[in-house]
Amino acid sequence: MRHQTATLLIALATAALIGWAAPDVLLIVFAGCLLAVALNAAGQPLAERLGIAPHWGVLLVALVALIGLGLLAWLGFDTIAAQAREFSQTAPRTLRQATEMLNGLPGAEWLKQNLSFEEVQPSAQTAANVALAGVGGTLGALGNALLILLLGLYIGSDPTLYRRGALALLSPALRPRAEATLNAMAQAMRGWLLGQLFAMAVSGGLTFIGLWLLGVPLAGLLAIIAGLFVFMPYIGPFIGAVPAILIAASADASLVPWVLALVVVVENLEGNVLTPMVQKQASEVPPALLLAMQALMGTVFGILGILLAAPITAAGLAAVRVAYVEGWVEEPGEATRQTLIRP
Question: What does pTM read for this prediction?
Fold first, then answer.
């Protein structure tokens, strides 16, 4: 066995062993790399403009983003939680009004017979179990988020250091192709992020206009939440619409069908027109492959897998194209040759 082949097999076997023993670790590391790409893409131009070191630009971007997210959580959590409590108290009346509006339509009788409008009072033991599970899940999610943030800050501040370390594990003959693969993956992740940010901004703007025209309270805050959930393609917009539906239901039950219609229209425009058009130019991810990857990653890894399915697919396609198709099946293309000689 040649030396370069042995080093490649050892690296792949190590990654496979980590993936088998602790698959969540690979997802967290990838999430940290994705955050590092985002921080580096925004931090480097800022550092050049301000005349400071690149790592200070990355830290400044991260600080501004954390402050913005903290303000959003502080302003929105109490309000949305209060609206959710109000909705839980008025839910039986809201459901009764909804079924009365459906009188005469197919399925109305089934709804009346199978939906209970009485208040459900959970037992103390059930409430305690739910509370403990919620606390445990929250602490675990916060721990993972902190780890991803630290990885993003460290890698984004000095990506060259970690790239050199990864390349040092391979035979010198493989390093140019491996570096080209890493560059292509970073470009694909950056392109996917830019396309997704554009889709998030447009979706949030359309949601704000629709909610404002409907007279739904907190239209701006709800639009920001809906826009953030667009980060999770296809599934996220419907999850992000839940707060808007709750607040619309607590304010006026007749607004709920209009809010649902708005969500469907915006999701179809964003998912079927805007995102495929933008992502085709930015990262070249086929929609059918993305849906299949979301289903696979969600089944194996849960919510974190669904969140990262799209950027993993984009980075994986770039790696296959450069490392396998152009590096093994065909001769290196012009784009890859330019990547190979990039400093």
Answer: 0.71
